[in-house]
Amino acid sequence: MINFRNIHPRKRVALVAHDNRKAELMEWAYANREMLAKNELYGTGTTGKLLEETLDQPVIRLLSGPLGGDQQVGSMIAEEKIDLLIFFWDPMSAQPHDPDVKALLRLCVVWNIPVASNRATADFMFTSPLMDEEYVASQIDYSTYLNRKV
């Protein structure tokens, strides 16, 4: 069985970047500031602070990723409080919170959340006509899994 949820034209967008990718995310965000201004923004740690300064608009700031910010975003995804994730992660550096990063990306797949991991995917996502429209997202019904005998 498939469930459906409405994603409104004003999206709830989480923005996250590892240290080596923060400058790239800020450049992208500045170039897309008009589109970002139409949405509700969330950012982890320093990324949230830099986004507020770069965009001159409010960003709901969560904890730093290694201190639980990635898990906060994941929790918000599971509670259907985040519609999109822009996560410029660093594939070349080991992160102290790699398990959190993997869990966050896994939750995006489980909850059918679009994820952009670099400038190209963020550009494709934000130039989609669906960014300005209501979207009905399908969601796998996990009730069989939840009701299984253990």
TrEMBL record:
Keyword Lyase: yes
EC assignment: 4.2.3.3
GO MF, one example: methylglyoxal synthase activity
Active site as annotated: 70 (proton donor/acceptor)
Superkingdom of origin organism: Bacteria
GO terms for biological process, alphabetical: methylglyoxal biosynthetic process
CC per GO annotation: cytosol
Entry keywords, A to Z: Lyase
Name of the top EC class for this enzyme: lyase
Family named by the database record: Belongs to the methylglyoxal synthase family.
Protein name per Swiss-Prot or TrEMBL: Methylglyoxal synthase
Organism for this UniProt entry: Dyadobacter luteus
Gene this chain is encoded by: mgsA
